Amino acid sequence: MDFDPSWLLIGLPVAFVLGWLASRFDIRQLKLENRQAPKAYFRGLNFLLNEQQDQAIDAFIEAVQNDPDTQELHFALGNLFRRRGEYQRAVRVHEHLLGRGDLSRVDRERAQHALAQDFLRAGLLDRAEAALQKLEGTRYENEARLALLAIYERSREWAQAADVAQKLDESDQASYSTRRAHHLCEQANERVAAGDLPGANALLTQARALAPQAPRPAIDTATLQLRNGEAAAAFDTLEGLSDTAPLALPLYAASLQKAAIAAHREGEALALLQRRYAESPSIDVLEALIALGGTPAAPEATDAPVEAPTPRDSYIAHLAHQPSLVAASRWLAGERFEHEQFHPQVQRALDQATRPLMRYRCAACGFEAHQYFWHCPGCQAWDSYPPRRVEEL
């Protein structure tokens, strides 16, 4: 069958008309979608400003459906989900962004950072750790390292925490030497628990060199020296610490007293404790003085016979410095009353009343504990506990 050229004269105009109609339809549809997307976006923004998060999320979802290539809408939607506690939906939004091949490097890093925040807020620390590690070498590097440091400290992974803190220290953003010393002390405690005393001593030596002004490395070193029977070395360690960290003396006054007795250096310890007590009275320092048989003040030189003070007299002397229910209770424990049969009941009531006063309180979050913590279990802050009891604050 021969081809008839006349069909070209008919087909070409028809094809042109159909193509023109199709293009007009596409343009009209595109304009309609573009009009719908901004309207939904601004409607969502208005809801957000009016703190109507449910309506804002619905509007942003509509905008994303109309224009799925808009990254900013995805980020806004993901942040809204995270603020509302809908972490699973936030994760899906940010993982969808990361799965796109046309995402720029800046937006990819931003999505990775947002995904890590989703996992952190959801408490999925293992997945947050993996997401944060992928931010190494990006503009979010230091922020990611700080988050990783918090994760490792919370989970007590001290070796990993020490590595991250060292990187932060080397970045010159801030000094982390004291914090790194804490990590070494924590590792040393683990070595002591495992029976590796030489390894613990090596870690404490590193900690003291890293933060010579910090009290904890010296206190932990003296504790280890006492455990090894090195009383004289423990006393020397704590005596030196009394010059570099005198305000922390209440924390190690009892250890200083034990080391002095074991090393037969009671006279030196008494003189040191009396001098520091005069500068800053404390119930813990007072207890160490009494255990050594001393008093808050050195005896005055006189020819007249003076009755030797008793430990109970030291509590009365302490009350002259500051009002203390604890000191009053300790003094009353040895007092003789007319109705002696009621003394045990009264003493038990006083002891119960003074027990909360002997706690330590975190200055950052107010968490109280009978034990002194270098790392607050409540707010995870370091060195947030003053070295004094609640009564003395």
UniProtKB/TrEMBL annotation:
SUPFAM superfamilies documented for this protein: TPR-like
Cell location: Cell inner membrane
Keyword Metal-binding assigned: yes
Domain of life: Bacteria
TM helices/strands, residue ranges: 6-25
Cytoplasmic side stretches: 24-393
Claim: DNA-binding is one of the keywords in the record: no
Molecular function terms from GO: iron ion binding
Keywords: Cell inner membrane, Cell membrane, Iron, Membrane, Metal-binding, Repeat, TPR repeat, Transmembrane, Transmembrane helix
InterPro entries referenced in this protein's UniProt entry, alphabetically: LapB (IPR030865), Rubredoxin_2 (IPR041166), TPR-like_helical_dom_sf (IPR011990)
Coiled-coil stretches: none
Pfam families reported in the protein's UniProt record: TPR_16, Zn_ribbon_LapB
GO biological process, one term: lipopolysaccharide metabolic process
A cellular component annotation (GO) from this entry: cytoplasmic side of plasma membrane
Binding site for Fe cation: C362, C365, C376, C379
Membrane topology: Single-pass membrane protein
Domain named LapB rubredoxin metal binding: residues: 360-384
Job of this protein: Modulates cellular lipopolysaccharide (LPS) levels by regulating LpxC, which is involved in lipid A biosynthesis. May act by modulating the proteolytic activity of FtsH towards LpxC. May also coordinate assembly of proteins involved in LPS synthesis at the plasma membrane.
Family: Belongs to the LapB family.
Protein's name in the database: Lipopolysaccharide assembly protein B
Organism: Acidovorax cavernicola
Gene giving rise to this polypeptide: lapB
